[in-house]
Amino acid sequence: MNTIRIDHLSRVEGNGGIIATIDGKVVTDVKFSIYEGPRLIERLTVGRTPEEDVSIVPRICAICTLSHKNAALRAMENALSVKVPPKVILARELMHMGEMIESHSLHIYYLALPDYVGFPSAIAMASEYDIEIKIALEMKEFGNHIMKVLSGRFIHGENPVIGGFGKYPTREELTWIKNRAIQFMPFVLKTVSLFCELDYPDNPEADTLYACCEPGDNRYGFWGEEILLSTGEKLSKDDYRKLTNEFVVPHSYAKRSRYKGKPYSVGALARVNNLGERLEGKAGRYYEKYFDERWTKNPLFHNAAQALEICRCFERIPQLVDELMKYPEDLPIVDYTVKDGKGTGIVEAPRGLLIHHYEISKGLVENVDIITPTAQNAEDIERYCQIAAQKLMDEGKKDTIADRMNLIVRAFDPCISCSAHAAEIQEAPQENWKERLAEIRKEDPPIFVGVGNPSRSDDAAGLELAFALRKRGVPDVFIESEIKDRRKIWKDEDRMLIFLDAIDFREEAGKVTLIPLTSVLNNASLSHRILPFLAVNRNPGKLEKACVLGIQPDSIEPGNRISPSVRQAIITICAEIS
Amino acid sequence: MDKDRLKIGIYELTGCAGDALLILDCEKELMDIFNAADIQSFAMAKSDNINGELDIALVEGSVTTEKEIEELRDIRKRARIVVAIGICATLGGIQARFRDPEEWEENYENVYGDTKMEHTKALQSKPIDAYIDVDHYLPGCPISKEQFLYFFTRMLKGNPPEKYPIPVCVSCKHNENDCLLNRGILCLGPLTSDGCSSVCPSCNLPCVGCWGPVEGANSSSEYQLLLDKGYDADLIKKKMADYSGTKIAELLDQLKEEKL
After folding, report:
1. Which residues of A232-262 are buried (b: 16+ CB within 10 A; e: fewer)?
2. C-alpha to C-alpha distance for A559 and A533, rounded to whole angstroms
3. Average of pLDDT values for A385-412?
4. CB distance from A551 to chain B under 8 Å?
């Protein structure tokens, strides 16, 4: 088996890797793994006070620390029925803008741009792009400064607390922030042009579902009470589990999410897709100028969307400062008593939708649920990597796969400590399917489903194979046309489900391949009509428990003759199974 | 030129990456850092990383997988000096909350169920000196910029870093803050190592103890004082353990003996 491995994706925050497996000419599998060990964050604050919780949970991630803080505060204040005055909301928004600017500028200039201009790091880039590096540094420094003024320090500031702030910025500090934001505008506009005009490759392209917070009032913002999907659907924040459906995969300590069985994306690109029309001022004008259809299906445009959001933040900051100035400098923390209850808080972290949910009992945290953006993006990261890798294989550009996968992973800006560093290619050994089949059969006996079209020559291979297996007394063999209720075949969730089918891998006729169902579903070039239909309703965590035993057809022209090589493959498989 | 520059590697194990990020946050000094030293490996900042002989290895994060033990031992072999940066590498951090293996296992199963991980085995979180010899410690959650730059410039000149044997209270007094303990607020300042310039008390908020215990802290006195203020013994101990991992466990056990 040929594997492309990027072990330590450098220049993303945290520890992870991506591995693509190639069997002949087909990219059969892509795994985005988080090598970082488990921290059991959701269990750390159980039995602690709400105040300890909001201090500890932002330590999940250094980059998104204030997003975690804001999500935790919003959830905890909901649980404890604490109502905060408008000044607190404004100060929190300003704080959030600081983090957006810091994180986005660090990401687009330091972590993403070197790839597009061909340097190993921003430091190495400095010789040719000294102005860009200087802008990036100053922009990031400005974001850091706002974070420090509002939260107490650069990272893991403790100043924001349940019910308000320990200390508010002075009028002088606010004025300085406002003036600096205004002075920065020319550089901000330069940043937007630079990243919106970058030459993003057209591969990968695929539709996806975008999810973000609905800020309400037709505004562009970073939190809300509802989740907005690109289909127009809205979910109450308390129903977040309908979207996220978290599950565990064996190759990563970060959990995964799918909505109605399908991967979805969150982050700056999701926000610009869902909310972009609400952008005002210069950000609005740039949106009009640059946003087009490519942004709706190519994850590489995350970087352009981030630049647009930097502009939005710089325009919003002076407004926020003006509003904050209307209130007296000192404001006591809202008094509250700890009572039992539960609450959810949703915010947009720089890299996407972040959900915190708490249940308080006897004054202490009893239950914690935290769903991070990277956990939600992981499935789409794998899917887009697979699409891109397959297309590059088809174009005969195998040696560029690792670089492209790096680019995609980096565009998603994964914050891997939410629970990734570089790519590897694996070549499947010949006859690999026999070993894997034997392994599967060592556990529970699998369920077989023969699919295909009996009037299209070799496309009947799956059906022929299923009939042959039945004849030899193999139990639990289904035939596509006989399945009235597809739920029936998914009933035994813990048993492996093996689809038998003719699949065009562009190989020699009769070659047998055993691959996970997900890689067929994710593989645009293996256009397949029936498998996605049969896969619907399957618990997404159990999709791993399904695979496809494919035979390379010689011909799928109308007709009812099965070619000799495919016939031989059917006999070989039959001998192996029965 | 590279012959004269110290070879330095910055490594991240399990944690929030906040200490590595804080080094990137030294915006104005960052170029100087990269010029003054030969940064051989820094995964967060560059992709052309080399794993060779090092003068100094800075390691952040705690050890939570078998793979990380191997990685850490390899770093130790290659580096003349190993420095633990941040509270996770120093003491195990917030993720080292569970003391006994059974408690950890129970919580692990609660999060991951019975899914068998393919790539590496998970372990209870431990500081890096549970597996290798560590030459210096730079605590904090995260480390502070001033403290790091001071440490870094001393190391560049071949001088050992200075310890911070003072509690948060010292800088709190320098900052002319009112003592929160006097106001009846549960503040861990007297027990906690300084290095943050008393950032939380300066915001009128109690110290959460994120730098870990200060050397020679009078824990029993603080414990008694907080008990007298009417705080629950269990709550005080839990709070003292929030950031200090399992290392503080012994200290907490002693408190029990003295008071009961």
Report:
1. eeebebeebeebbbebbbebbbbbbbbbeeb
2. 25
3. 90
4. no
Ranges of beta strands (E only) in A215-263 are 223-224, 226-229, 234-236
Q: Does B238 sit within 8 Å of A121, measured CB to CB?
A: no
Beta-carbon separation of B48 and A121 below 8 A: yes
Encoded tokens for B5: 């520059």
Q: At A390, which amino acid appears? A: Q
Determine whether the interchain pair B97/A44 forms a contact, defined as Cβ–Cβ distance below 8 Å.
Answer: yes
pLDDT digits (tens, 9 = 90+) for A186-208: 999 999 999 999 999 999 999 99
| Min Cα–Cα distance to chain B from A310, Å | 18
β-pair type (A209-214, A264-265): parallel
pLDDT class of A131 with cuts at 50, 70, 90:
confident
Count of CB atoms within 10 A of residue A205's CB?
18
**Residue B176: what pLDDT?**
94
Please give the Cα distance from A298 to B194 (Å, whole number): 48
pLDDT 10s digits, A546-569: 788 888 888 888 888 889 999 999
Total residues found in chain A within this entry: 578
Q: Please count the other Cβ atoms lying within 10 Å of the Cβ belonging to residue A326.
A: 9
Q: Establish if A69 touches chain B: CB-CB under 8 angstroms.
A: no
- Best of A43, A105, A251, A374 to substitute, by most chain B Cβ atoms within 10 angstroms, is A43
* Band (A427; pLDDT cuts 50, 70, 90): low
CA B25 vs CA A103, A342, B46, B148, B154: distances in Å: 11, 36, 15, 11, 19
Beta bridge partners of B38: B7
Buried b (16+ CB within 10 A) or exposed e, A473-510: ebebbbbbeeeeebeebbebeebbbbbbbbbbbebebb
**Interface probe with B: pick from A12, A67, A156, most Cβ of B within 10 Å:** A156
pTM for the model stands at: 0.82
Phi, psi values for residue B115, rounded to 5°:
-60, 125
At A20 the pLDDT is 85
Measure in Å the smallest separation between the Cα of A65 and chain B Cα atoms: 9
Please classify residue A167 by burial: count the beta carbons closer than 10 Å to its beta carbon, then call 0-12 exposed, 13-18 middle and 19+ buried: middle
The predicted complex's ipTM stands at 0.90
Q: With CB atoms and an 8 Å threshold, state whether A123 touches B28.
A: no
